[in-house]
Amino acid sequence: MTEVQATVEKARSAARWWGGLSHNERRSRLLAWKRHIARHIGELSALIAEETGKPQDDAALEVMLAVEHLDWAARHAGKVLGRHKVPSGMLAANHVATLEYLPLGVIGVIGPWNYPVYTPLGSVSYALAAGNAVVFKPSEHTPRTGAWLADAWAAAVPGEPVLQAVLGDGSVGAELTWSGVDKVAFTGSAATARKVMATCAETLTPLVVEGGGKDAMIVAADADLDAAARAAAFGGFGNAGQTCAGVERVYVERSVYPEFLLRLSALAVGEQTMTTPEQPAIVRAHVEDAVSRGGRAVVGGPSSITDSTVAPVVLAEVPEDSIAVTEETFGPTLVVNPVDDIGEAIRLTNASKYGLAASIFSKDSHRATGIARKLRTGAASVNAVLGFAGVPSLPFGGVGDSGFGRIHGADGLREFSRAQAVTRQRFAAPMDLMRLDRDPKVMQRALKLFHFRHGR
Ligand code: NAD
Questions:
Q1: What is the pLDDT of residue 430?
Q2: Cα–Cα distance between 337 and 318 in angstroms, integer?
């Protein structure tokens, strides 16, 4: 038996214990884990900073956001998932109908390296709160952070191994996908998601995919340009641009385009470390493609990228078919293109194969919300970036190459549950059609009623 198989086996027995607890019993244990993480935030954020190269304050912010979600999931699981009555309807008025969301069993969580706590905990916390055991395969670039989270669980909730980590590269992820877990929660690139889905198809294992993004910001002519530029800089250059729902493209109404570029350029400073050795070459290829197709490098250019660091790059008037526009860059680069009107901005935003999130800047918040509703994305922020990331009651996830299924919020809890419908007959039906010796007169009456109700 391999290590992954043995770990999943142990998780199976832990799942029986954990799934058998009440929501209140699980909540107190989840909150004990939360307190452990919160009390050791310094140690954990130092480890994240060491493994990813991001500043420790950014790592601490990531932990703060993750803990907020964990707290919400622990406190809301009972209300969202617990058994409750639903209307039984006309045909089954003699039944009481109840609905409950029960655990699936063991969830395999496969995580990325860019937010090695916030991102996987979006699945792990909600899966645990829904009563499942979890086997977590962190990215091979952040193994110690992944192991730390599982050790923290064992310290806070000793006994059954409800949360365990298995370490290694993609081959370990593939093994976990094969292992017979009851669901896989994958976060990573669309290319890997395709491989994971192919394996899941073999074993008919359900899957949630949190994929990449090519998120756009739309800046209307009436926007607060300073606020929009600050948000674009944070969303585009923060975490060295390695944010799935960060800003990669900006569409600005032509009348304010030069002014926006000016204000954004003033904020495009500071060299940052890239987490993986492969990433700088990808970023350079995107910048070179944009420039060779006639895009203007307003700040920086191909020379901003060394073997391990990247300084911010602002690219203007980049052809929409450049890979800098069509593919996820995952570096501190922003493509800023002018548009004739908001209709064009919406069309270009939606032209992407990705659809994770977007942001809209306009002083007319009613109009901005209307624009958000026209975008083919799973989330949108008005007059801010990544606003949704810190709201635990909101679901998160994308469409297209950005994935499917949802983590966070009530949808995130249900994602790791099976709905179970139960009816209980209270009295015999006055018109009983569910019997072999059905009375033809009763059927006649039922048909009359049916026409009266639905055929008028
Ligand atoms: P990746 O696809 O290279 O790897 C993700 C995980 O999958 C890693 O743990 C890896 O070991 C594992 N893996 C690789 N091959 C596998 C296989 N055949 N079977 C099973 N598992 C396998 O992604 P990455 O580079 O680690 O992360 C960056 C990507 O993640 C970006 O595209 C980013 O946008 C995306 N991301 C998405 C979200 C979100 O919530 N939507 C959050 C963070 C990152």
A1: 87
A2: 7
Closest to 320 measured CA to CA, from 376, 235, 248, 374:
248
Tell me the whole-structure pTM to 2 decimals. Answer: 0.96
CB contact at 8 A, 349 and 358: yes
Task: Looking at 181-304, list the stretches that DSSP marks H as alpha helix, in order from N- to C-terminal side.
Answer: 190-203, 225-237, 257-267, 279-292
What is the per-residue pLDDT for 90? Answer: 87
- Alpha carbon of 43 to those of 39, 111, 114, 152: distances in Å? 9, 20, 18, 12
Q: Which are the contacts of 454, defined by CB distance < 8 A and separation ≥ 6?
A: none
pLDDT of residue 444: 96
246 lines ligand 1 (CB under 6 A): no
Q: How far is the CA of 209 from the centre of ligand 1 (A)?
A: 10
pLDDT digits (tens, 9 = 90+) for 380-422: 999 999 999 999 999 999 999 999 999 999 999 999 999 999 9
Arithmetic mean of pLDDT over the chain: 97
Question: Does residue 103 contact residue 15 with C-beta atoms inside 8 Å?
Answer: yes
The single residue of 175, 210, 253, 415 carrying the catalytic annotation is 210
> Is the minimum distance from the CB of 405 to ligand 1 under 6 angstroms?
no
